[in-house]
Fold this sequence. Notes:
Blueprint: E1 2-11, H1 17-28, H2 33-43, H3 56-71, E2 80-85, H4 94-102, E3 108-111, H5 119-132, E4 138-145, H6 147-153, E5 165-174, E6 179-187, E7 200-201, E8 207-208, H7 214-235, E9 245-248, H8 253-263, E10 270-271, H9 274-277, H10 284-294, E11 303-310, E12 314-321
Parallel strand pairs: 2-3, 2-4, 9-10, 9-11
Antiparallel strand pairs: 1-5, 4-5, 6-12, 7-8, 11-12
Amino acid sequence: MGVKIQSIGSYRPKQSPEDALEHKKSLEGESEWEEWINFVAGNLPIAYSSSYQETAMNLASHAIADCLEKSRTPADQIDLIIHLCNIPDHLLGEATKIQRLIGATHAASYQIKNTACAGVLAAFLQASIFINSGIYEKVLVVCVSNLALNARKIMDIQDAHLEDLATATLFSKCEGQSGFINFHSETKSEWERISYLLPLDHSKTGGLRGNGDLNKFHDVLAQGSAKTMKQALEKASLQSKDISWLITLNAREEFLDLWRQGIGIEESRHLHTFHEVENCSFSSIPYTLMRSVEQNKLQHKDKVLFFAQGSGLHLISLVWEW
Length: 322
């Protein structure tokens, strides 16, 4: 028995940074905002964030509807919902509320927290294990990345390149041996101090500024990511040359370069959607998968190496056969 990704849905909010900043300007007055809005409009591509009235639950419901429509799957056939959200509407029970909202009357549900952007691969792994074990047949992984709106509230935007995006990925049982092969995961608590190298500067035209030793920051992340991916490959008895595609978290160009160079995979085999949706946290990988399927890039039996890191502290790499 194998595991397949049956369908992937998404929802991309339509509000731009200028809209969000104008809204905050109207609430707090015009002082200091004109310079900031001009800075954003003049130096960053248009990114999309949720409106101030749009909830995480709303983002999730749109993505789920798209996913289930693509696979023609009734919500009451879902066995488990795994939910991830950067900033949930509710302190507790949001996965349960999503379950009720979509009518998944027979599903269990829970939320993964504290893994940041790497959480999506933890969810992929858990979905695979549940299905391979025979416990469940259909597992829905829901990702709501809503950092952009909240980052813009504090003007933490300059280098973050954030977008809001929701995705829903339906995993199901299938014949054959496709799906999860192996993985490697590490949590680097000793790296917590690297965040001190990137202090927040909330000045008028500030944002996330690299005021520390960026060379050290890059070296640490490059070494850790390469080690994690290589260990996942070793556990799967594979080498970089056996991998058809590398699919990573969307991140700044220098990180994308570091990740593929660290594992020895050329740019043509590295799939990401940074130039389309920028950094949308744990929705990045499902969205890239969705676009790759639409473009017929992924073929049966392709070996895919996934990698994501969360806040620099959590690193997960997953090897998958399509």
